[in-house]
Amino acid sequence: MNQKYIEIKSLIVSSIMNFIIGIAGVVVYIITDLNFLLLDSAISLIAFISSLVAYYISKNSHKKTEVFPKGLYFLEPMYALFRSLVTVGVLLITLLETSASAFAYLVNGEGYPIETGIVLPYSFVMVFLCYGLYFYNHTMNKKIGNMSIIIEAESKGNFIDGTISLGIAIAMTALYVVDINGPLGFLHYTGDFFITVILVAFSISEPIKSLIASFHELNHSVIQDEELETMIINVIENRLPNHHEDFDIHILKQGTHIRIHLMITRNTQLFSIEELVSLKRELIERLAEEFASLDLSFVI
């Protein structure tokens, strides 16, 4: 199945599901006025908007222009980078907001108890939807050899949303057994702060990892996926079984585009121009079975 087809299909499903999840979160947040639900719904709405942007990028990144004759593949890691930055920003802003609310209660005694009624069933439904979307996107990306940094960013966003919802469900369940007039009664007023702290601590590593990976791809670093790198090297070495020491293989990845440089390090007269042209054609034909977009060049 075509890589772009799978990527676009995944983004359409993500857009629809993220819209449903985001709107549900906003409605419940308006009803309850709980800050940790603001975090939940904000991330889902960011995911919906970014899914639409990602869909446009995926549809157009392969197009070549006079300014970008190699295509617009740089838009794919750029999208993942900005989405990761926004996700980290939302996590930190929500943490600061809930910290202010907790401070107001603990210092000034101001605050309202958390209403658990509608939140508990909502959070369990969101856990099912978010983790379901995560596994869907993860599976779709796996089908294309984890080539799509866009789908990877989507799946990590879904995982964060599902984790946040799971934390909310666990916390709301716990509040049912905590007496508001008991020694832990303060949790009914400050519980959203403690929930948010835990959720941010567990969730923030994923967008940071995606941020680093996106930065690498955007700046033409060598491929970071060891599995993909090994597969490409095996294809090349199988075609050149007696010349492993004659080449340095440099593999670059930007979005769904692969760029391979074979540096001839020993005898520059090892192959004639005609042989290199033929060899290049054979390698591209073989690698095209795995990758929708790639360039290969010999460097003398």
UniProtKB/TrEMBL annotation:
This protein's UniProt keywords: Membrane, Transmembrane, Transmembrane helix
Record-annotated Cation efflux protein transmembrane domain positions: 11-218
Chief subcellular location: membrane
Membrane topology field: Multi-pass membrane protein
Classification of source organism: Bacteria, Bacillati, Bacillota, Bacilli, Lactobacillales
Entries under InterPro entries matching the protein: Cation_efflux_TM, Cation_efflux_TMD_sf
Species per Swiss-Prot/TrEMBL record: Streptococcus ferus
Any GO molecular function: monoatomic cation transmembrane transporter activity
Alphabetical list of Pfam families matching this protein: Cation_efflux (PF01545)
Stretches that traverse the bilayer: 12-31, 37-57, 78-106, 118-137, 158-178, 184-204
Location within or outside the cell: Membrane
Gene Ontology annotations for the cellular component aspect, listed alphabetically: membrane
Protein name: Co/Zn/Cd cation transporter
Lineage top rank: taxon: Bacteria
